[in-house]
Design goal:
Layout (H helix, E strand, L loop, with lengths): L4 E6 L2 H11 L2 E9 L2 E8 L7 E6 L3 H12 L5 E4 L3 H10 L3 E9 L2 E7 L5 E7 L3
Length: 130
C-alpha cells in the first residue's frame, strides 16, 4: 500500500495555491471544478508523481472547527521533511513565508513552523544524523 493523497483544509484555495507553489516550491498537479466544488492538489516539484496534497476548502463546519482548533493550540496541520532546514528556512523567508518558529533543535531533529496564511501551521523537520 502507498499513500497517494492527503488533504489539508484551507480557508482560501487561491491563496493556498500561491503559498504552496510560490513560497514552498510545490507544483500544481490537479485543478478542476464541478459547480462550487474545486479539486486542487499540489506535489513536491522534485516528485511530480509523488504523494498529492489536496488543498481542500474548509467550507464544512466540522473541517473549519478542526482547523481552527489545532491552529489555536499551535499544532501543525502538516509535517514536511527536508535535508536542509536552514537552507529551506532562508529560501521560504525570501519567498515571503512567515515563520511562527525558526529552526529549533529538539530531541532527534530540528524543526521550524511556517504559517501558510490559510489557517495552518506547517512544520518542517530535518531529522538528526547520528
Amino acid at each position: 500500500m502507498k499513500i497517494k493523497l492527503t488533504s489539508i483544509y484551507v480557508d482560501d484555495q487561491e491563496k493556498a495555491l500561491a503559498f504552496y507553489t510560490g513560497v514552498l516550491g510545490f507544483t500544481k498537479k490537479a485543478d478542476f471544478s464541478n459547480g462550487p466544488f474545486r479539486w486542487l492538489t499540489v506535489v513536491p516539484a522534485e516528485e511530480p508523481e509523488g504523494t498529492e496534497l489536496q488543498l481542500a476548502l474548509n467550507d464544512n463546519p466540522a473541517a473549519k472547527t478542526y482547523q481552527q482548533a489545532i491552529f489555536s493550540q499551535g499544532q501543525p496541520a502538516l509535517m514536511l521533511f527536508t535535508d536542509d532546514i536552514k537552507g529551506d528556512h532562508e529560501r521560504i523567508k525570501a519567498n515571503g513565508g512567515v515563520f511562527a518558529m525558526p529552526p529549533t533543535q529538539v530531541t532527534g531533529s530540528t524543526i521550524a513552523q511556517v504559517n501558510d496564511g490559510c489557517g495552518n501551521l506547517i512544520q518542517i523537520t530535518e531529522l538528526a544524523r547520528w
